[in-house]
Design goal:
The structure holds two protein chains of two kinds.
Chain A lengths: L2 E12 L2 E12 L3 E5 L6 H8 L9 E9 L2 E2 L6 H7 E4 L10 H11 L5 H14 L3 H4 L12 H13 L5 E5 L7 H14 L4 E5 L3 H7 L2 E6 L2 E7 H6 L4 H7 L5
Parallel strand pairs in A: 3-8, 3-9, 6-7, 7-8
Antiparallel strand pairs in A: 1-2, 1-4, 4-5, 9-10
Chain B lengths: L1 H41 L1 H6 L3 E2 L4 E2 L2 H32 L2 H16 L2 H20 L6 H11 L1 H13 L3 H9 L4 H12 L1 H17 L2 H7 L16 H9 L5 H33 L1
Antiparallel strand pairs in B: 1-2
The chains are: A alpha/beta, B mainly alpha.
C-alpha cells in the first residue's frame, strides 16, 4: 500500500505548551488508521494538523513537515484546496441550519458547481455513499436539524463526501451517539475505506480493534507505538501501550 | 415574622410591576378613547386616506403623513441595514482586538446621543449637502432617511452582532473543513444561521425610525402633502402631532390624537412582528 500522507518530525506548540513532540508517521492509502490514547494526549491535535484546522488556534506553531501525495501541505498547497482533498467529520454532528439538500450541496457549490442536475447527482451519490439516501430521499428539503444525532452525523459524512475528498479525518465521530448509530457509522467507515483513506480519533479501544487496520497510541504528545491493529492489541511492544490497552490507566 | 415580611415584599414587587402595565393601559385608553371618536367624526376613510390636511378648513386627511412615515422609514432601512449589518459582521468576524476596542464603544456612544443633537447635525451637514448637490431646499425625504439611517445603526449593529456571535463556532469550522474560504464561511454558513436575530434587529430599527420625532422635524421640511420625489419635503405622523399640538383645539386636537392612534397601531404591528420572529428563532 502506498503512503497517502506522511508526517515527518512534526512539533506543535500552543504558545509555550509543547503539544506534539517529534511526530513521524505514515498514513497509508485506503486503510483506516486509528489514533488512540488518553484525553489530552495530542491525538486530536495531530488530526487537525492534517487539514490545518489548527491554523484557527491562536498561538499555534508548527515545525516539521506533513505531505499529501508528496506535496508539503503547509508550504506548497493552498489551504482551501487541502481541505477539499482532506475532509473532516467532527466529534459533535454539526449540520448547517439549512435543508438536507443544501447541507450536502454546500461543498460542491463552494467549489463552483452551479448546475442543478449536476448538484442533484452529487447529492444523491454522497447520501448513498454515507448509506443514508434511503432514509432521507423523501425529505431533502426539510431542515437538517430535525434529524436524529446519528442521522446528522451520517449527513455530515455525506457532506464531506460531496466534495470528493481523498482523505477523511474523523474526530471521535461516534462519541456523541447511541450504540446503534455507532455501529452504523462503523460499518460505514468499513465501506468507505474502499475508496477513501480514513484517519479516526477514538476514545473507544473496542472501536479501534473493530474497524481499524493500523493503530497509533499517543501519550503526552508523543507516539508511543504504531502498528497493525491486531498486533498492537495482542502483542504491544511497549509497556505503556500494554498498560493502556489493558485498562490500567486512561 | 419572616413569612409576613416575604409577603410584604412580594406585594411591593407586584406593585412595581403593575406601574408599567398601568402606564401602557392608560396610554391605550387615553389614545383610543380620544382618537376613535375623532376618526368617526371625520370619517375613517376621509381621515386615513384623505390627502389634504387643512385644519383651518376642518379637513383632516393624514394619508400624506402615513406615507411620509413609511417613506422615511424605508429610506432609513435602505441606508442603515447594509451598513449596520456589514459593521456587525466586521465586528464579530474580522475586527482585530485593538480596533474593536475603539469601534464598539463608538457605536454604543452613537446610541446615547440625544436626537435633537442628531437633528442639529442633519440641519448643518446633511441638509446643506443635499441642497448643494441636488438643489431644492435640502430638507427632504432623503435628508430624513440618511439621518434616521445613522440613528438606527446602533440598534441594528448591536442586535445583529450578538446574533452573529451566538452562532455555534462549529458551523464556521464545518464550512472551512469543506474547503470554503473565511469569507464564504462567514457569509454562507454563519450569517444564514443568525438570520432571525438579524431580522429582529432590523425590526427594532424600524420601530426606532418610525417613532423618531425631533431629528426628523429638523430635516424633513414637514410639508403636509404627498411628496413627489425623495428631494421633496415630507411630514411624518410624529412631526404632525408635535408641530400642531401646541395650538390645536377642538376637532383639530382630537385629529392629532387620532394621528397618535395610527402611529400606535404601527408600533403594535412592529412589536408583534418582533415577538413572532423571536419566538420562531427560539424554537429553532
Amino acid at each position: 500500500m502506498a503512503n497517502k500522507m506522511m508526517i515527518d518530525d512534526l512539533n506543535l506548540y500552543y504558545g509555550q505548551f509543547h503539544a506534539l513532540k517529534d511526530i513521524s508517521l505514515n498514513i497509508q492509502e485506503k486503510e483506516i488508521t486509528a489514533f488512540i490514547g488518553p484525553s489530552g494526549c495530542g491525538k486530536s491535535t495531530l488530526l487537525k494538523s492534517l487539514n490545518r484546522m489548527n491554523d484557527l488556534v491562536e498561538g499555534c506553531k508548527i515545525t516539521g513537515q506533513v505531505t499529501l501525495d508528496g506535496t508539503d501541505i503547509y508550504r506548497d498547497l493552498d489551504v482551501n484546496l487541502l481541505r477539499k482533498r482532506v475532509g473532516m467529520v467532527f466529534q459533535k454532528p454539526n449540520p448547517f441550519p439549512m435543508s438536507i439538500y443544501d447541507n450536502v450541496a454546500y461543498g460542491p457549490r463552494t467549489h463552483g458547481i452551479r448546475s442543478k442536475a449536476k448538484l442533484d447527482q452529487i447529492v444523491e451519490e454522497a447520501l448513498r455513499g454515507a448509506a443514508i439516501w434511503d432514509e432521507l430521499k423523501d425529505r431533502l428539503k426539510k431542515s437538517a436539524l430535525g434529524l436524529s444525532g446519528g442521522q446528522q452525523q451520517r449527513l455530515c459524512i455525506a457532506r464531506a463526501l460531496a466534495v470528493k475528498p481523498e482523505v477523511l479525518l474523523m474526530d471521535e465521530p461516534t462519541s456523541a451517539l447511541d450504540p446503534i448509530s455507532t455501529i452504523k457509522i462503523e460499518e460505514l467507515a468499513q465501506e468507505l475505506k474502499k475508496d477513501y483513506t480514513i484517519v479516526m480519533v477514538t476514545h473507544n479501544m473496542q472501536q479501534a480493534t473493530r474497524i481499524s487496520d493500523k493503530t497509533v497510541f499517543f501519550l503526552l504528545g508523543e507516539i508511543i507505538e504504531a502498528g497493525k491493529t491486531d498486533e498492537l492489541f495482542s502483542m504491544p511492544k511497549d509497556k505503556r501501550t500494554e498498560d493502556y490497552i489493558t485498562g490500567r490507566f486512561g | 415574622m419572616a413569612k409576613s415580611k416575604e409577603k410584604i415584599m412580594e406585594i411591593v414587587f407586584l406593585l412595581a410591576a403593575c406601574v408599567s402595565i398601568l402606564a401602557v393601559a392608560l396610554i391605550c385608553v387615553f389614545l383610543f378613547a380620544n382618537g376613535i371618536p375623532a376618526m368617526k367624526k371625520i370619517g375613517f376613510a376621509d381621515f386615513l386616506l384623505g390627502t389634504t390636511w387643512k385644519p383651518g378648513n376642518d379637513i383632516y386627511g393624514i394619508f400624506p403623513m402615513i406615507l411620509g412615515s413609511i417613506y422615511v422609514t424605508v429610506g432609513a432601512i435602505i441606508i442603515g441595514v447594509p451598513i449596520g449589518l456589514l459593521t456587525a459582521v466586521f465586528l464579530a468576524w474580522y475586527c482585530p482586538e485593538k480596533i474593536y476596542k475603539v469601534v464598539k464603544p463608538a457605536v454604543e456612544l452613537l446610541a446615547g446621543i440625544p436626537s435633537v443633537v442628531y437633528g442639529f447635525f442633519g440641519m448643518v451637514m446633511i441638509v446643506p449637502a443635499i441642497r448643494y448637490n441636488f438643489g431644492g431646499t435640502g430638507s427632504s425625504i432623503l435628508a430624513a432617511s440618511i439621518l434616521l439611517g445613522i440613528m438606527i445603526l446602533p440598534t441594528i449593529i448591536g442586535v445583529s452582532e450578538s446574533a452573529i456571535r451566538a452562532v455555534p463556532g462549529s458551523y464556521y469550522e464545518g464550512s472551512l473543513a469543506l474547503g470554503a474560504t473565511h469569507e464564504r464561511s462567514v457569509f454562507r454558513a454563519v450569517l444564514p444561521a443568525a438570520k432571525s436575530g438579524i431580522f429582529a434587529g432590523i425590526i427594532l430599527g424600524v420601530g426606532r425610525a418610525i417613532g423618531e420625532t425631533m431629528a426628523v422635524i429638523m430635516v424633513a421640511g414637514n410639508q403636509a402633502r404627498v411628496p413627489k420625489g425623495i428631494l421633496k419635503g415630507v411630514r411624518t405622523l410624529t412631526a404632525n402631532i408635535v408641530m400642531e399640538m401646541g395650538y390645536a383645539e377642538g376637532l383639530h386636537r382630537e385629529a392629532l390624537i387620532a394621528t397618535g392612534v395610527v402611529l400606535f397601531v404601527f408600533i403594535l404591528i412592529i412589536n408583534l412582528a418582533f415577538s413572532i420572529i423571536k419566538m420562531r428563532s427560539e424554537k429553532e
